[in-house]
Design a protein that fits this description.
Strand content of chain A: over 45%
Radius of gyration of chain A: 11 Å
Shape of chain A: globular
Oligomer: heterodimer
Mean pLDDT of chain B: 87
Low-confidence stretches of chain A: none
Number of strands of chain B: 13
Radius of gyration of chain B: 22 Å
Distance between the termini of chain A: 29 Å
Structural class of chain A: mainly beta
Strand content of chain B: 15-25%
Distance between the termini of chain B: 52 Å
Number of helices of chain B: 9
Chain lengths: 32, 314
């Protein structure tokens, strides 16, 4: 199964992730 | 020499041809070539498989209670196969789970998933980041190089009526010219914890349920079938957060065909019959306040980290 988040954010929003990385509930995905 | 029998000859040549196609396809993929996409015929062939029936049968099978003596060996095999970390489970005793469906819905100890307070956006689930980034035009990437249409994925928007027809679908969703549209795809493997949580503080205004296929959403299939997330059964929750539009979509898969929302008992997924291309809306904006978390006229208020729903076998 898959969860897709689609959201509006200020243009300077940035993800602190890399593709293929493992992630867990509650961990930060990005910041402004 | 006896004349060759047609059937074995057909099987050998057919499997040889398929093997060659497979090798050519993945060889092209490995050396950095563009992803090999399934042809419409291959997609139609895949969709013609009775995956929904299979999924419901799989769910019924996993709903049968196991005798106590059989629970430990069965669940231990599942744990070993999919690398489940039972130390994090709220109940570690395997005899506690009556059937595999209940084991699949296991809860975690609250302390093992602290919610990051420094980030305005946190992961809604355990899993693997399949893809993320900015949404360009109105196409979203399911994996690198394979896109799907935003409009097909979310369906028509109410605001479509009030803005000029020349606006792109992406522009419809944005509430400010200073913002952009972003997306992230989290893939949950069979051994992952399968409840999903709210990724931020937001208000859910609409639930849109798209019945659909239940093809695998394994990363390999996501690289092979364009628009996979628009073809599969899914539940789209949309509303507003501090920066404008926000949506969370749970996409079903063959062995995990059912999606539950804790604040919406009316939702029924993976039903035997549905009309292709249809969707069912439920607005929470006019909901009365008796629903958990409902904010009366404003929709269902969710806090960052709050449990929202779960995927179920079958």
């Amino acid at each position: 199964s898959t969860i897709v988040l689609l959201f509006e954010a200020p243009k300077d929003f940035s993800f602190n992730l890399h593709p293929g990385q493992r992630i867990r509930v509650g961990e930060g995905l990005g910041s402004l | 020499l006896p004349s060759p029998r047609p059937l074995p000859l057909l099987v050998v040549t057919g499997s040889g041809y398929l093997g060659y196609q497979y090798y050519k396809r993945w060889g092209q993929q490995d050396n950095g070539g563009p992803p090999y996409l399934a042809t419409p015929t291959e997609v139609a062939l895949y969709r013609s498989f009775p995956t929904r029936l299979l999924s419901r049968t799989w769910g019924r099978l996993n709903g049968l209670d196991l005798p106590t003596w059989l629970r430990k060996p069965i669940y231990s095999l599942y744990i070993w196969t999919f690398g489940v970390n039972m130390q994090e489970a709220a109940v570690e005793d395997l005899h506690h789970y009556k059937n595999l469906g209940e084991f699949f819905r296991r809860r975690l100890k609250p302390a093992v998933r602290p919610v990051c307070s420094a980030s305005c956006l946190t992961s809604p689930a355990d899993g693997k980041i399949l893809h993320f980034g900015r949404v360009k035009n109105s196409e979203v990437e399911q994996v690198k190089g394979v896109t799907y249409s935003l409009e097909n994925f979310l369906g028509p928007q109410m605001r479509q009526i009030s803005v000029s027809p020349s606006s792109s679908f992406r522009d419809l969703l944005l509430t400010s010219p200073d913002s952009d549209l972003f997306h992230i795809v989290v893939y949950l493997a069979p051994g992952d914890y399968h409840c999903f949580h709210s990724p931020t503080d937001w208000k859910v205004e609409l639930r849109r349920h798209f019945p659909g296929s239940l093809m695998s959403v394994n990363p390999g299939v996501a690289r092979w079938i364009k628009e996979l997330f628009c073809l599969n059964e899914r539940v789209v929750l949309s509303g507003q957060w501090q920066h404008g539009f926000f949506s969370l979509t749970a996409v079903g898969a063959t062995n995990v065909g059912s999606i539950r929302l804790y604040f919406d008992q009316e939702l029924q997924t993976n039903s035997p019959c549905y009309r292709k291309g249809s969707f069912l809306d439920r607005s929470y904006v006019t909901m009365s306040s008796q629903v958990k978390g409902a904010a009366g006229e404003g929709g269902v208020a969710l806090q960052k980290g709050e449990p929202v729903g779960e995927f179920n076998l079958g």
